[in-house]
Amino acid sequence: MSPVEGEVVDFLQAEEKKVILQNTLENTLIEVGSKSKIIDGQFVNLAGHIRDSKTGEPLIGAMMYIDNPRIGVATDQFGYYSINLPQGRLSLLLKCIGYKDTKRPLMLYSQGKLDLEMIEDVIPLKEVIIESEKDVNIAGMQMGVERLDAQSMKKVPPVLGEVDVLRVALTLPGVQSVGEGANGINVRGGNADQNLMLLNDATVYNPTHLFGFFSAFNPDVIKSVELHKGGIPAEFGGRISSVFEVQTKEGNNKNFVGSGGISPVTARLAFEGPIVKNKASYIVGGRSTYSDWILNRIPNDAINNSTASFYDLYARISYDINEKNTLYASGYYSHDKFGFNSDTIYSYTNQNVSLQWKHIFNNKLYGVFTGVYSGYTYHVKSEKNEVNAFDMDYAIKNINGKIDFSYFPNSRHKVDFGISSIYYGLEPGSMLPAGINSLILPKILENEQGLESAIYLGDKYDFSPRFSVYIGLRYSIYNYLGPKSVNQYAENAPITEATQTGEKNYSKNQVIETYHGPELRLSARYSLNDDTSLKLSYNKMRQYIHMLSNTTSISPTDTWKLSDSYFKPQIGDQVSLGLYRNFKNNTIEGSVEAYYKTIANLLDFKSGAQLVLNEQLETDIIGGQGNAYGVEFLLRKKTGKLNGWLSYTYSKSLIRIESDFADEEINNGAYYPTNYDKPHAVNLLANWKFSRRLSVSTVMSYSSGRPITYPIAKYNYNGTERLHYSERNQYRIPDYFRLDLSLNIEGNHKVKKLNHSSWTLAVYNLTGRDNAYSVYFVSQNGKVKGYQLSIFAEAIPTITYNFRF
Amino acid sequence: MSYHKIYSYLLLIVALSGGCVQEFDPPAQGYENLLVVEAFLSNEDEPFEVRLSRSVPIDTSAFVPESGAQITLSERDGATFVLSEKRTGVYQSSGMIAAQAGRTYQLQIKTASGTRYLSDEVVMRPTPAIDEVSFIFGEKPNGDLGAQVYIDTHDPDNNTWYYRWEWQETWEFRTPYNSYIYYDEGEIKLREEDINTCWKSGRSTSIEVATSKNLSSDHISDYPIHFVSAKTDRLNFRYSMLVKQFALSEESYVFWNEMKKFTETLGTLFDPQPSVIKGNIHNVADDKEIVIGYFDASEVKEQRIFIRNSDLPSIRFPNYFSSCEDTIVSEDMIPAMLATNYMLVAEEMDMTGLPVYLFSTAGCVDCTKYGTNVKPPFWN
Q: Which residues in chain A are contacts of B167 at CB distance < 8 A?
């Protein structure tokens, strides 16, 4: 037998074992409850976890349902489900992306617990379709939600060898960025600071590494990513555009395993395994870059004297104390550092710690008690010129305590309710002299404090299998707290340094300003037939913390600012309407979603605003009215040799800054496009599986160029040609187009082989198109020249070696 | 981030990403015709000069002066000076203004079309002396070799905080052939004029401003005002730079700094958005009209440095005349040679004792083709 045949045989043997296991599971009758209690037609509750059969990892979003009557439920973020089912003999159907569809014969006598396991479908060659199955897309309540699992993200062609959740998210309709290598995403015409970036419930303030080339999330520890663009449930609050929720694995509670990868720029490694078999597990992951080493080899003094490095560490422990109690603890730390010419060094870190205790009160009620610490700091150090040497620091920290309950009163209701409170402590900036000869004036901005609290209740109610409604209400209240001295300005005058009248002092914990209001969340679904449904949603969101940036993308020195007497909370209202239709036995999903959004108190800055170490930010920032609308078309094929999606989005994002004072207006108070207004976007993501070991993936991305402020006249001043610019954002840079290709080669499938490996050969920007990141104009030697800056202007090939053991 | 930091940042990103920066000709869009006023009042011993022009579309190279305007400068509680148009678009006072620090001035313009413009009132600011203009010769991080010129200054009264500089450079250069004779109507005459050593000059075109506002005392330390590249002929013999220092008000600093930011230092990932630059000159009848320019008044303080080639390490400086060649002809050939582009350099003897004449092309002999042979008064 040749080695290749051996592999195939091994693989087939493994698959055969799975089939046998599957058959055994599917043919073994499970009995739940005590026989004496059976009353025909009576509904009783069944609850439990659905897990991966091999790793014990809870599965998020796994569907469990019965056909007659049609009742179904999806597991939550803990892999937990609770469902009311009729007593008697049932056939439970289970479905989850990346897992073999399966069924379990069940004899349900009375209320009880049932933990189920599903078998991973490593290579879903055959399209397995359960004829009667109604897809989540049609039957699910949610709209404007995208879930990406780690497995499918790994197929997307990576840039510089790293799988990047933010980049994958950018291929979804309604998600854009201002350009290549730009930090942050813009969801449905919203600013980059309007996304709630959560890593196991902890806010991540700067979600990127290395100028935005990489996301801050290690792909090896991620289980799934969920992005809510609209119809946001009541348990989320604090940001007005989206919720970007990253869930990490709990760790394999059966065996010790590891995974990792090496690419030209980065290396990563993760371990997971049981602490107590089937009860407690851990996962630890880390990443680092050797870009410093590469930089040192570039024959240019300016570059090889520069430094750019990052690393991140993640750890999580999960402990099932008993059937009713589970504890989770996780920590995340990331660090970035870069400097040029050994001159100024910039560094920043994210720090997150979260503790969660999940308690199951009974089958119908469980609660999660969460404590979270999140921090973000940056540091700038310059020592080149002794007289001007300085250390600059910024920090934002928050502590978040929350309790969330999920209650399943009967088969028609699912109720979520809870409370949350976040305490923010902000150190808006300090600049201190470095060294004895420095004349830098020590400047320390006063700390800021804020408390954001909320209470919520949401109820999903099924009127009928065809019609269901979600009603959620969140009430948030925000206090801006002392100690702080607050600048006072003359009334009926523009807020400028010249109109400042004095300061007002507040003592510790004294309430300086309070904002509060209800946030209504509504969704409704109506199924026109088995393949088609209509969904409508409305949500109001309030945001009390804002990122200030007068650059087009997020830069490491952008600062977060709490709402205060001058910075009112941003309030977003979004209505969306969607039509969903599945074709070809649910193998192809189609959807059209339209949305209209208004944002009150959207921030923009006055011309020439200085944001760093500014004691009077209110004189440089102005609140305006935002307006965004669009329509998103999506066609998705989830299974089969060819899978992927194609989307087209038309959207507009506008802002208007009006004031009684001309000085505070931008573009004379007319609506103008935001920096991230890109009306047309087409994205294609496709995977083609040639064989078990070989697959090809491609991403194609097109979008309109982003708006810029363009020079409309030139003149001579002080002996040099100079430019006069248009009103803000009246012109656009050229359109964007990119094609990526990757080839994934799986190692052989010998089951007992210690090392399961795969290679990814990828070419980012295959056509080598030099997409404009920006165009700009510089007067040099008395003449005006136009330049176009492109990032990744060539085809970037990379090779990544991934391994599991 | 200062300019050179941003530049390095850009380099780094481009290097890491395989990115690039390409030059292109920006197409003209949505032209606006605006009045441009260049007016700066100092205590220098010169008439006060105002230049008026119009903005043009960005794809043209025309310069459109604004002619026929009436301009007056008025001193609060003092005299009013009427300017007259000396050249098209250039207006001058008839004598010295004798402007003094602490006095308040205002500029008024009435264009030929009858529109009236008025500047804000500005107080002439006193300017502290420059402490030192210095240079360091070496390699820049990007590998360029040359002399980096720095400025140090401070205000003992801690009252200036905002500074602007201009500079004028002058350098000596020599042609390879020192012609001491010339041919005049059949006669060879001794040349009295030196056409071998000349001087060229230039002036700052970029905006140089700095502030000490974030320091505990009003010091500017090692502000890099200009880099004299060793790739030019400036450092071959002797080079001189005159630096002029002006104190700015906070408002005028903002004006200059924005003009610098929006026209000189763009092109990074983290660019600030450019916008209309606010000056202090307004249309009396229509406050919405944009007028480009800031009328400012400040004392001037100067300092001059010299950089001698002998002070620099002995490296090869560029020789713009490396292709120069000479030809030796007999006397009878002289008129024929002169009919071409050749100039007579020297008289020599051939081996037989007869005079022969050394010629080279005018461009290798006559330095006044490139500069002036009038020795600047400060050149000792």
A: none
